[in-house]
Design goal:
148 residues, alpha/beta, Nucleotidyltransferase, domain 5, 47% helix, 23% strand
Length: 148
Amino acid sequence: MSGRILGLDPGERRIGVALSDPLGIIAQPYAVIDLRSQNLAKELKRIIAEEDVITIVIGLPVSLDGAERTAAARAREFASKVAAATGLAPVFADERFTTSVAEAALLEGDVRRAHRRDVVDKVAAAVMLQGYLDRLAYENEESPGDSS
């Protein structure tokens, strides 16, 4: 791999942003894009250029039974906007429980409530992206290589 993977956890007002290391092994919280004060397309283009992003992963909120409802439709619409703005076709990753996991990790880390509100979106994006990276690594392990 020769570039980073960008993870986006879309919300109605804020977009959590996470970034992988160059090898695509570890996800880290990166930023929160506040849609009320920042231009999404401009911010994404800046991040992609500065961080050498080659893939975008967007969290897809599906219900516990796997069905896609209103939130998933909004995520797919968001993905279309991201593709139009960046020229990169996003892939989706299941984001069930990512905010809950992020909240729990922040609580365990004794992060104060006011600061949790500021960082939970980017931590949730990192949880979602890490799940995607882990699944990718597992699938690559499972597929047999060229044994010649």
